[in-house]
Amino acid sequence: MVKNSLFSLIERRKEGYAAGIPSYCTASAIVIEAVLEQSKRFGDKVLIEATSNQVNQFGGYTGMLPEDYRDFVYGIADRIGFPHQDIILAGDHLGPQPFQNQDEATAMENSKTMVYMYARAGYTKIHLDTSMRVADDDRNAPLSDFTIATRGAILMKEAERGYQDLLKENPAAIHPVFIIGSEVPIPGGAQVKEEMQVTKSEDFENTLKAYKEVFEKHGIDNLWKYVIAVVVQPGVEFGDADVHMYNRAEALNLTSSLKNHPNVVFEGHSTDYQSPRALKEMVEDGIAILKVGPALTFAAREAIYALSHIEDELIDCPEKRSNVRQVIEDVMLENPKNWAKYYKGTDKEIALKRSYSYSDRSRYYMVDQRIEAAQEKLYENLRSVDIPMGLLHQYMPMQYVKVRDGKLKMDPRELVKYAVTIICDDYNYATKHNFVAGSVFI
């Protein structure tokens, strides 16, 4: 059996190295393409995740089943010549997250089906998230560590069943590793920054204790060796307009507790918009898996908006322009369910958030055919004209430097992908030894 490459995080840290890996959590084709292309520079493995809201047995908001997302990622990899074996596919927040309005029995049955499908499709990193209440849980009391661990153990069994079924047809299938935890930040960033508190070291200890006891009770203590990380809140979060930066002093009690548990690391969610130095400190402190999602699609959307301003300058006839910004706005207004309950304020403030919030809830709409058509029209229009370098500098100064130096094509789609690469380089700086890139601002 081929050993799961993520065990190297544990092994390297035992050797005294600050090992870490970014976890790119996205269903955006252009983001995935950019992530894979930047990974080709190093010839190493890349971790790409789908969330339970994006991809599940009912299709999620992308319309994809776990095997569909796998093939979607592999299809992009094939186009750019990236080997499948260097892609670590992962499932994020696998549990009752999409089924919170259902009673426990129904939510858990749906969660079991979803986790089985992810494991059966060959995903080798699985985040078992049972930290949220379902419909018949007491809304006035937090879930106990025992309840969270029990539900996690039930899902672990289903993941193992999925893997064993996969193994029957593919004897070389890699056993998945698992991420657990009871203090899991909500997907996509918080609404109220002030609610964020660093996980207490005793809560981390209690989580491990509860899971170990429950695993033994359920007869799956032999699977404990596959638990490599615990999700904690190390003090990083973002909202619409604010980012709570990592403060290693505030997290010291938590991160120091890892020395008593050499076989696990921490997984940090909501690391989006952290500085490269903060990300590097997180890795040094044992937060070895750095989850990033909205920052990637925010960067891509920002680049598309910049290109649309360039288009306005160069395409004189309004009817020939893509009007992509207005198309995105129209689609979001037409179907407000993915942003209305998250964005608060005056009409003007909410309008600004639809475009510029750090939570980037516009990402839910980018698969709409009208938006995709508008983007293609934008690219087509800009390929039909010469973009003056001064105009490029005005709206895309980072891309300007690369184009000027002959390291980036003056192609609109390449300019968008480079915006994503800039974010990736922040994570490369944090997780790769002696990484140097001119785009990293420490």
Report on this structure.
Residues 438-442 have low confidence and may be disordered. The protein has helices spanning 7-14, 29-40, 66-80, 104-120, 145-169, 201-217, 252-256, 276-284, 294-314, 324-334, 347-356, 369-383, 389-395, 397-404, 412-431, and strands at residues 21-25, 46-51, 87-94, 125-128, 177-180, 227-232, 237-238, 243-244, 265-268, 287-292. The radius of gyration is 22 Å and the shape is globular. The protein is an alpha/beta fold. The longest helix has 25 residues, at 145-169. The chain has an eight-stranded parallel beta barrel, surrounded by eight helices. The chain has a two-stranded antiparallel sheet with strand order 7-8. The chain has two domains: 7-292, Alpha-Beta Barrel (TIM Barrel), CATH 3.20.20.70; 298-420, Orthogonal Bundle (GI Alpha 1, domain 2-like), CATH 1.10.400. Helices cover 45% and strands 11% of the residues. Helix 2 crosses helix 15 (412-431) and helix 4 (104-120) packs parallel to helix 5 (145-169).
List the helices and strands and how they pair.
Layout lengths: L6 H8 L6 E5 L3 H12 L5 E6 L14 H15 L6 E8 L9 H17 L4 E4 L16 H25 L7 E4 L20 H17 L9 E6 L4 E2 L4 E2 L7 H5 L8 E4 L7 H9 L2 E6 L1 H21 L9 H11 L12 H10 L12 H15 L5 H7 L1 H8 L7 H20 L11
Helix pairs in contact: 2-3, 2-15, 4-5, 5-6, 8-15, 9-12, 9-15, 10-12, 13-14
Percentage of β-strand residues: 5-15%
Radius of gyration, in angstroms, nearest whole number: 22 Å
The neighbouring-strand order within the major sheet is: 1-2-3-4-5-6-9-10
Oligomer state equals single chain
Class of secondary structure makeup:
alpha/beta
Poorly predicted regions are: 438-442
CATH level 1 name of the largest domain: Alpha Beta
CATH architecture of the largest domain: Alpha-Beta Barrel
